[in-house]
Amino acid sequence: MRFLRRRTGVLLRGTSLAAFAGVALAVTALVITLALMNGYSRAIATALQRGNAHMVGFALGSLEPGEATELSGRIAEVNGVLRATPVTYLSGLLVDPSEPTNPIPVTLKAVADPPSYTGLDAWPADQGLVAVFGGRLSERVGFSPGDTATVRLPPDGGSWILPALRLEVIGTFRLAFAEFDERWITIPLSETLQVLPELGVAGIEIELADPMAVDRARENLADLDPRLLFTDWREMNSAMFAAIRWQTLSLFVVLSLVVAVSSFQVSSALVVLAIDKQRSAGMLQALGATPARIRRVLVISGLLLGGSGVAAGITFGCIASWIMTATRAIRFPPGLARIYMVDSIPLIPTPLHIAAVAGVCLLLVFVASIWP
């Protein structure tokens, strides 16, 4: 390959540089996109694991408070379970003091023990019906600790009067997940049942030592009580994660086509190289080199050119992903956070994604090197 290292013309240098830059930029975009989609999926999963229980055992009907407490104790003793507590959910309308005629739809999570995101070890005693508001919800209505909030509940059968809960705000939480921060209110279960004795307990909220070990936990809990139907955070949000996976695959295919277009610049560079080295190739043939051997040299040249672009693109993509994650470059205002469900997105490339990018891009470069 010594004849390839001889002095080259401006046209060959220009086409080679353009091919290198084109492949590198396309691969960089592909790496950043996959890192973005992976980070988005992880951000949603992390927020869901913090805001929701890892598993919930829903009762077929409802449970009495004593039954729920007894079941929670049995579940907490199962291997891999960190915490189990009775829980029920309510939908309501939060009265906005500034706009009483325009209430805000909210979800009330009544739980026996305060979740870790509330920052409380236990609910305050003898303080009535207290509440921890989502951070953005409290900002929207202007509530702060010590204020009293009113939540209207759906009417009882045959009544047009909306029953109301009066809640004392004792704190706020932020989970970087729009649905929780803008719609959720966490309240103590025992006080809620005192105000609404007909309510009952919907199920048991379960926190696991390993949030990803839900399948093993299901097996351990399968025969615990026939009244409980267990589900987990992945199953409850399976449609959303499936949509993210399809989006990731679609973007990978589309951007791979961009890499394919960029790799044809490698073909152009090889054509220019063949023309530029035509005399040298003729001399080699006169000395006994076969056309197949010269063709192999050109293919290797294309692989070196395109492969260096792929390597540079992967490197640039990983560095850019790290910088954008460290600086939290992708952040959303409240309006967009409501659409994308999270406040910010980290960019997290994975070894599997890097291997897929390298394999597909090198294959495209190889095809482009053979074509001329």
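(ticket continues) Second input and output from the same batch:
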Amino acid sequence: MKFMTNEEGVSPVIGVILMVAITVILAAVISVFVFGLAGDLESSSQKDVTIKTGTNDDGEITFTIFAGKNVEQITDIAWANSTQNETLTGNFTIGYINTTGWSKDASGTVTFTAEFTDGSKQIVASVP
């Protein structure tokens, strides 16, 4: 009895398909770097700041800078609702407390936004 053996590793058709696929992938990777498409990507910057909101005895909204490693980078804190806004500028530290002068009941949803030394802005708190 004679056994048939096949010593070919890959058929010629599959070999050609694999070579074309590798060439296309290699060309795509090289073109990304040659044409500078990878340089247009922007990195997002999420700041680490925690602000705790509440109300005082008069029903006015207060906020306290509670924690965060980026607190010293805050240049402005703004709060706004659907009809008005205010901005506070200063040197902010952890433990800083401020009263907005706005009544929680009459103000609707109030959003607090911090602006940082690099020019970025981030919503840091919201009072429904």
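Agent notes: The chain has a mean pLDDT of 86. The radius of gyration is 30 Å. Closing as not reproducible unless the customer responds.
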